[in-house]
Each structure stands twice: as C-alpha cells, then as structure tokens.
Task: structure prediction
Amino acid sequence: MNDDSSADTVLIVIDRPPYGDWHGREALDMALSLAAFDRPVAVLFRGEGVHWLRPGQNASVIDQKTVSRNLSAATLFGVEALYADRSTLARFQIGETEPDVTPIVVDPDFYHRFKKVVQL
Result:
C-alpha cells in the first residue's frame, strides 16, 4: 500500500484479545462491513490484539469459535491488508512467521500515516 492510498483507507485498530469481550470481533466486523461496501479498509493488530494472530487457538474450550477463520477470510472479503505491530509481537513472543494468518509486520508509529483510524 502506498502513501496515497493510505489517505483514503480506514485503518481499524484491534488492541483487545480475541476472547473475553466483543470489542475485537466488533472491530473486525466493522472492517468486513466497510470492505463489503467497497470502502478501502485495513486492520492493525497491536497491544493484546496480536493474540488474534497466535496459531493453534482452541476456542471451543470456552464455547466460542476460533477467530483464525475470520482473519483468513478478511482479505477475500476486500480488507486490503492485515498489519501487526513488530514490538508487540516481540513482547508477547509471537514470531513473525508463526501466525496462521500472515500479517504485514510494521513499526509502532505505522498507523499515524492514516487519516482515518478507528479503535473501539
């Protein structure tokens, strides 16, 4: 994505873990809805949101569905890109090649280049 397209792209920030509350899922639903209406949208995982990228999740033990399917389908539904904060991946010891879904790894100040940033 170049700097010109990021001006029109809505960046949805997910900084909540995938389980325990619905904020992260609502943020992903928002991204999918925007993409469905041909709005340029990307998703950035940072903070505890990088746990969405952890491989081998088994959410059935807490009677929920694993989020990896939703993430795998995001780009198919028109989400332009999935990003992950490099320093947060390191802090939570998630390798850049480890996730089931491979995000574009970026530096912490990456989101500042977007004019439209949504964080729930």
